[in-house]
Amino acid sequence: MHLIDFNLNIDELTKVEGAAGLEIQVKKGKVESVKFKISDYKRFYTQAMRGKNVAAIPQLLARICGTCSNAHLLASIEAIEKAANFTPSAQTKLLRALTYHGLIIRDHALHLYLFVLPDLFNLDSLLAFDQTEPEQHQLLHDTFSVKAAGNHLAMLVAGRSVHAPLPIPGGFIKTPDNALIPQHIQELKAIRPAVLRLIEIFANCDFKLERPTDYIALKANSYSYLEGEIYNQDGPLTAEKDLRQYLEHVVLPYSQASAYTLKNKRPYRVGALARLNINKEALHPKTKSDAAKALQLFPSNNIFHNNLAQAIEILHSIDESIDILSSNTFSPETPAQLKLSAATGFGVIEAPRGTLYHRLTITNDGTVQEGEIIVPTSQNQIAIELDIAEFIQNNLHQPKDKLTLECEKIIRAYDPCMSCGAHFLEVKWLEE
After folding, report:
1. What pLDDT was estimated at residue 187?
2. pLDDT (tens digit, 9 = 90+) per residue, 99-127?
3. In CATH, what class is 45-379?
């Protein structure tokens, strides 16, 4: 049991993408502060892009993240094309959608199977799963099958699953080999049962932390990660190019990552939970049919349903990809030459972890004058702190190891970019 006053501190989290820490202070039985400290975040990409030719920007910005590099790649391409007032061809749009579906399948699978699933079985990591136990053996097999299918889809269309070389402003350097498409369709069909198993597991998970808040995401007639306007749960908010006007930059002195609230100082969440809360009716018909029971849980304020939403999105990306691949033959198409002039372009897409914003200001000769990037983890940072504060306040009676584990689960539920390990919080407790 805890004393009335205690601190929970960690200087640096291990097994993460970058570095982060967590500090909680409780005095006289009240949570006074929660600091989710991202300590190795600033790598000055917004400075590095200045003075570069715009053609180099997509591959440069893709290096922001090895996990969701193709999200930054496509966001920057969109910003460049918007600056050039260019509309990509119908085939290019399909290929970008397929590239992105490959990312969603692979990235969500990585998070759900390797980072979150062990918590549901009270294990430290996927390596601790018992291969002689039928369910755990099946889930081990599912892990690599689903993740591989996402990788293979992105490789077919974009050349690589990470830092894809083929998508560029104006189109694709190379189009897929149509002869290879049938095998990819079969691979996607083969993993559907695995994803349905995953959805059932997370739909039946009893992890719960409900905190009403705002949500924002792109919304279109289809369930698109790449197009639409910005909505919150109450309806249309703004065109994507005007998103920045609705966000309030918040400086957290203890964190290298910028944080954001909405203009009225309200915190908000982005990510798969936000997308399903706002646009679940636009999911693929087969996804809605096969995941109908799980979809009844949305809209939801339970942050742990973000994991369920990710599992449902994997199924949607599978079904959409099968449709696109089954109904299209891709022809060689030379990328368009963009006509650049002094302009500002905006790229807003739904990264796996939430709404991603890129802005580029370009001069007449195609040089980047300056830009801005707002990533999902920054937007979720304040929400993470509020969730942890609420949990700690309501569970002061819990033992240390229980509070530590639950804080890990809350952070992992958001799938922040630094979640590269199964259990990444090793917390020191300092009690007064």
Report:
1. 98
2. 999 999 999 999 999 999 999 999 988 88
3. mainly alpha
Residue 404 CA from chain centroid, whole number = 24
Q: In whole angstroms, what separates CA 182 from the centre of its chain?
A: 29
C-beta separation of 358 from 72 below 8 A: yes
Q: What does the alpha-carbon distance between residue 66 and residue 263 come to, in Å, rounded to a whole number?
A: 31
How far apart, in whole angstroms, are the C-alpha atoms of residue 96 and residue 84?
Answer: 18
17 in the Ramachandran plot: left (φ > 0), alpha (ψ -120 to 50) or beta? beta
Judging by DSSP bridges, how do beta strands 214-219 and 268-269 pair with one another? parallel
Proportion of the chain above pLDDT 70, given as a percent: 90
Task: Spell out, as residue ranges, where the chain has pLDDT lower than 50.
Answer: 1-2, 12-16, 418-430, 432
d(CA 330, CA 335): 14
Tens of pLDDT, residues 34-43: 888 776 556 6
Dihedral (Cα; 308, 17, 349, 259), 10-degree rounding: 100
* Residue 399 backbone zone (phi > 0: left; psi -120 to 50: alpha; other: beta): beta
Average pLDDT, the chain: 90
Q: Where are the domains of the chain?
A: 6-41+388-431, 45-379
